Amino acid sequence: MPREDFIAVDHFSFFYGAKQALFDIHMDIPERQVTALIGPSGCGKSTLLRNMNRMNDLIDGVRHAGDIRLNGSSLYDPKIEVISLRKRVGMVFQKYNPFAKTIYENVVFSLRVAGRNGRRELDEVVERSLRSAALWEEVKDRLHESAFGLSGGQQQRLCIARAIANQPEILLMDEPCAALDPTATLKIESLIRDLKEQFTIVIVTHNMEQATRCSDRTAFLYMGRLIEYGSTRQIFETPRQEETEAYISGRFS
Amino acid sequence: MPQHTPHIIREFDQAMRGLADLVISMGAQARLNLARAMEALQQRDLDRCKVVIADDTEVDEAERAVDAAGMDILLRFHPVASDLRLVISSMKIAANLERISDHAVNIAKRARKMLAKPEVREVRLIEPVYLLADGQLQDALASYADRDSEKGRGLKERDQELDRMHKRVMAQLSQLLEEGGELSESYLHLLFVVRSLERVGDLAVNIGEDAVYLDRAEDIRHMKARQQDTDA
Questions:
Q1: Ordered structural domains, chain B, with CATH
Q2: Measured between CA atoms, how close is A238 to chain B, in angstroms?
Q3: pLDDT score recorded for residue B20
Q4: Is the ipTM of this complex over 0.95?
């Protein structure tokens, strides 16, 4: 049975120095579903996403209250190493950012860092990851060419292949289509629907239609607070909060 | 309420207002056609019969205009939540209004055929049926225009009164028909008129259901059947 609280955000607050960015966020993100975080710029959705793999730890002066648990274990458990956490949680960014390496080396980068260099294993990982990212057929004959020779959409799918090479449990996506054209965007959206068979996906998006097309659940954040969280259908058909309706229907001033 | 807060895109508000106005004026035209058809029947007025039949094309055009405006909003503005419900309910209500106007035409055609026969006193039996059906239609349109889900919800129950009256008048006319005579054909026409008015009541119920969906996002259609399924 997929776990309903695979990512349990438990009364989580977050501060950049004196400025509080998140206020008592409480939500359960279900396993192997796509959850969209929506809201106006500065609402805290990317901050929340980046806390799910502790990326915000890299910023000076941050602190938090409450907890986030992945599959039952706290992200902030002193016994947890951030490096091992990042293996469980892959991340894809707004601007595709392949390394200045071949397609092949991009995919296996994290394995090589971990000292896994067996040719057979790496070959298997490359094919499996690129197939999962719906890129294998397009690049299988040029795996050892530069990743920069790919189109923008292909580069983003390569970044997804790189993010899932280690077979994480969770895939975080921060506006993954913001820099892509409509066709490349639809391919990524289709891919997201396929990937949820294997991964729990959390996506930050400014694109309402994308949230409705891709996600099973949607959370609306405003000024650091979780205003409403429910099935995507419910949020976009019958939002319960006036702020949600105002935002999704373009009435926000 | 959010629907009273303007959209950031002004054209979106204008388009939504335009759509609702189209439906409301289409409803007024359908009601007018029905009233004129009844006048034509009661006053044996051939010209009025012709007007009702001709004016039906206006309602047909209005249905197309509502659909086009709805499609335009869907394509241009990608409405969600209450905006999406307004587009969907408007398009569905327009289809129901078009059918109501068709029933007005049916009544006008029956009235025209009855002109070839002697006048029948039993036309007076139709008036209360019409008043009930028209009252329901008026409230159905008001439930949409005012987003009044309670008024929309109440139409289903009120329709039972119309159904009872319909059955009663049908029984009276059927008996007269069985008795035969030169007025039989006119009684047959009146049976169809009563049947049309009963259908207008049903279509008004449909509009009320759409108004409930618009206001409360509740789907109250086929509740009885669904309840029976649950109980079984």
A1: 2-231 (1.20.58.220)
A2: 5
A3: 97
A4: no
